[in-house]
Amino acid sequence: MKIQVGFLVSYDYELLKNAIPQVYEYSDTIFLAVDINRKTWSGKPIEIADSFFDWVESFDVNDKIVIYEDDFSKPELTTMECEVRERKMLADQMGMGNWLIQLDADEYFINFKKFVGFLKAKNQLLKNPEINQVQIRPFHVTLYKKIDKGYLYVNEATKTFVATNYPDYRVGRKTKGRVIYTNSLILHECLSRKREDLVFKLSNWGHNIDIDLDGFMKKWDTVNETNYKEMTGFFYMEPMVWKHLDFIEGSTIKDVLNNFKGQKEKALYKSQFYLFKKNLGQFIKSVFK
Fold it and tell me: Is the distance from CB of 216 to CB of 202 less than 8 angstroms?
């Protein structure tokens, strides 16, 4: 029973230099899924510098990292279908009977040790996983935009899918298993990029056909350190899912991660009553399926 972590490697591969160190110590194996033809799911060509693989080799002092290359871009499939296909192929490499954690390059655990402890306390769910299918939902803290002296971020943590014992993915990392919520936070550098990098990402990821790119970028371009408190509605699909932004200092992601620990982190946790209510509802729902 292992803690297996998998990352999808694409155009934003450099961000893995922030993501991998957050999970390295408490992972048993880390798999990096790389398209062998260096293409995105929409078929656009990408480059991954040899220096990145040199960094991986030098960082991996405990021989935990596995490079998994395969053909993940299929023109006859939608981008979301390609994503689900790649995630299932990656899960096969990671191995059933383990906790399978899949992350993107721009997701940085704030306290991975705590999350691993939560999973290990539920190792009984790794027995007969097809019967006891579960998916573990921590919470995203989304970095929205880099500005002078720091970042604007969504000031309410949002649910995300990360780990499962049975990787029957349907949409992204979502399976049909029972959901279990836990108070773990992941800093998500989803949108706080250079403008051209952000447009490329939003044009090539699994949700590219679901968003109003022009409308979203207009708001992203407009918001800044002087007006963010007066603006509302920032989500890229249903704007009011992300109602408000806040500010955190930090010139680097390492600084931001350190600055979140403490009061900022505590303010973003869900209440114990919220978790109890959500998990009880999910358990009852699974019983009467």
Answer: yes
Check residue 45 and report its DSSP letter: B
Q: What is the mean pLDDT of each run of 10 residues along the chain (289 residues)?
A: 95 95 98 96 92 98 98 92 96 97 95 96 95 95 93 94 96 95 94 89 68 86 95 88 93 91 87 96 86
Q: Which of 259, 257, 261, 256 is nearest to 151 (CA)?
A: 256
> pTM of the entire structure?
0.89
Between CA 35 and CA 165 the distance in angstroms is 25
Instruction: Give the angle 8-9-13 at the CA atoms, nearest 5°.
Output: 135
77-to-74, 86, 89, 200, 211 alpha-carbon distances in Å: 6, 12, 15, 19, 19
Sorted by where each begins, the domain ranges of the chain are: 3-287
Residue type, 170: R
Distance CA(68)–CA(86), nearest Å, equals 11
What does DSSP say about strands 134-147 and 150-154: parallel, antiparallel, or unpaired?
Answer: antiparallel
